[in-house]
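Field reference: sequence -> structure
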Amino acid sequence: MSCRRRALLVLALLALLSLASLAVALAAGSLSIPFGEVLAALAGAETPSRSIVLDLRLPRALAGFACGGLLALAGALMQVLLRNPLADPYVLGISGGAGVGALLAMLLGLAGLAVSGFAFLGALLAMLLVFGLAHGDGSWTQTRLLLTGVVVAAGCGAVVALILTLAPEQKIHGMLFWLMGDLSQATASGPVLVLLMLALAVSLPFARELNLLARGAAQAQALGVAVPVLRRIVYVVASLATAGAVTTAGSIGFVGLIVPHLVRLGVGNDQRLLLPAAALAGGSLLVLADTAARTAVAPLQLPVGVLTALIGVPVFLYLLGRKT
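Structure field:
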């Protein structure tokens, strides 16, 4: 079997895995629902569990899929942009900015869409700050961008710690849950799904140029790639994807770091296949992790970020050992 046929087969299998993960998310919970009843509810039939499937589980599952897809896509783009296999969506301080915004909203007594709005605004401000400082006098480099992002992320972490110190005791639990990743408040999946489709629509036309950029900026420029423009596009798309995911689900680690590595084992490093495959795999992983988080100790719910970390750490160590 040729490499391209194998990659397309892996892509098809990931699409099936996505559908299967969503089906499991709709059926599993403190109240198990047979798959036949789930299909009937999706088809519009009046079943006893219709409201549970359509009003509670479906929006959460779709939001989780979109957030996982955005994180994995952003991770794949960041690894090309920085030419660093350890780069992930949070390395440039986007998550820290969103955390500051969300926790500030909670400290002010706001809730619901206000928290999401503050989180997205914080992520955008962090993105603009990192890009502005890294650009400086125009000598934009991967190293400068990475170091600027690390410093901004550290500063945001300090502000988060300060907010947690000043917060009343009754608000700390909600703040910590948000920081560890939480999809329980993700009731509107439409915006984040649209953002995932837009991020793919913008990044896929540049897949060939990204393949060249992965080999080095000098080689890409010699082959006709407008490297400065491409870097800006990749940075903005990856940052907005991260901001959308963090705004919806809080800080969820390891999805953007691990998933692109796993997908490369199946489809190779061709960005035309890697980017959509990473989005499908990341979405499936987060949906399954969230399903486990809300069913493992039901009726209690675990932060989904804890589950992704428990999955991600051993997988990363395996990949590290495999490459060495």
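Note: The mean pLDDT is 86.
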